[in-house]
């Protein structure tokens, strides 16, 4: 995250999208991963936050620059591994499928969060997901 922020000040959502792009969609961190990590970086003094409308834009501090420099070798290894992933012969998942998976995930979470104590609602969601899984599995049979 420090490396991404060192390239340009970024919002949390921009960091999520950049990680997704750099992993070829193989990894899309959730806001529940990114925002606590940004708070930790703030606490460590590696980044600073500036209000940008209703969002915060994060930029590197001198301490963050020093940390990047100290971890340059580790960063090179990470970037190499990401490059290998992007150069893979097999894309992890096409953009349209990845988008549909993301929308499904959020729809499921929202449906369950609306009334988490309703067992009928949870069962209905589970049944829909099971049916979708079975239909997708049958694609190999055609």
Automatic annotation (TrEMBL):
<dbReference type="Pfam" id="PF03551">
    <property type="entry name" value="PadR"/>
</dbReference>
<protein>
    <submittedName>
        <fullName>PadR family transcriptional regulator</fullName>
    </submittedName>
</protein>
<dbReference type="InterPro" id="IPR036390">
    <property type="entry name" value="WH_DNA-bd_sf"/>
</dbReference>
<dbReference type="InterPro" id="IPR036388">
    <property type="entry name" value="WH-like_DNA-bd_sf"/>
</dbReference>
<feature type="domain" description="Transcription regulator PadR N-terminal">
    <location>
        <begin position="1"/>
        <end position="69"/>
    </location>
</feature>
<dbReference type="InterPro" id="IPR005149">
    <property type="entry name" value="Tscrpt_reg_PadR_N"/>
</dbReference>
